[in-house]
Amino acid sequence: MTDVFFSYGLLAAAGFLAGLIDAVVGGGGLIQIPALFSMLPTTVPATVLGTNKLAGIFGTTAAAVNYGRRVKLAWRAALPAAGAAFVFAFFGAYTVTHIPTDAIRKSLPFILLAVAAYTFARKDFGIIHAPRHKGSTELIIAILIGSGIGFYDGLFGPGTGSFLIFLFVRFFGFDFLAASAVSKVVNVATNFAALLWFGYSGHILWQLAILMAICNVAGSLVGTRLAIKHGSGFVRKLFLVVVSVLILKTVYDAFLK
Buried b vs exposed e over 20-33: b needs ≥16 C-beta within 10 Å? Predict the structure, then answer.
């Protein structure tokens, strides 16, 4: 019984920290998924991922709501991107059952390295909020970003939130705080699409997922407050830290594991 409480306590702590990190820059899965696999070594991967998605979607939704109350959220970019992401996440989930993903796994560290290098080299990247698109151009770019990231999240997934933030800064001219807020709306859509499948197929540990969801929400509220209080400069620095950790993890998964 003591071991059970200890395991649940560690997973609750992981849920809180994952919610905090994910609310600011994405990448909460770096904490939550390894913790679940470590504490549930005999559980099938699909159930681990389904439990993670249910816990995570509550934190992501809480972050989106909190950002919406405190930051002017760019809904004209967020909603079409979220709609496209929801649809294409299904296509990604379907595709992953029919093709190998080794090529994606091995290319991911290099893509993340390029993202980190670009962000680091441009010191003003994401610091100033200067939206550069309106009307049909804004709609088309939002749909393209949502479609691409939605497909990727359904197909593979690591770093989805961080990729979203980078793309909204790079192509829309948002600062990191605004991009983080928009990314949460899109991420809710991709997570919900995946949850429909995991829930339908019975791959969720409900009691554990609800416990971690509560902790994830608590962490996300702390994370959004930190991001709003300290601004885009803080988000940019944490973004670079999380992407750097993602690079190390994806190199290990692709080439050393």
Answer: bbbbbbbbbbbbbb
Q: Are the C-beta atoms of residues 43 and 7 closer than 8 Å to each other?
A: no
Q: Which helix (H) or strand (E) holds 242?
A: helix 206-251
Per-residue tokens: 181? 């807020």
Tokens 């479609």 appear where?
Answer: 147
In whole angstroms, what is the distance from residue 28 CA to residue 41 CA? 20
Q: How far apart are CA 257 and CA 237, in angstroms?
A: 29
- Considering the chain, what percentage of its residues have pLDDT values greater than 90? 59
Which of 191, 181, 179 shows the shortest CA–CA distance to 154?
191
Q: How far is CA 127 from CA 25, 34, 163, 247, in A?
A: 14, 32, 17, 23
pLDDT tens track for 125-149: 888 888 887 889 999 999 999 999 9
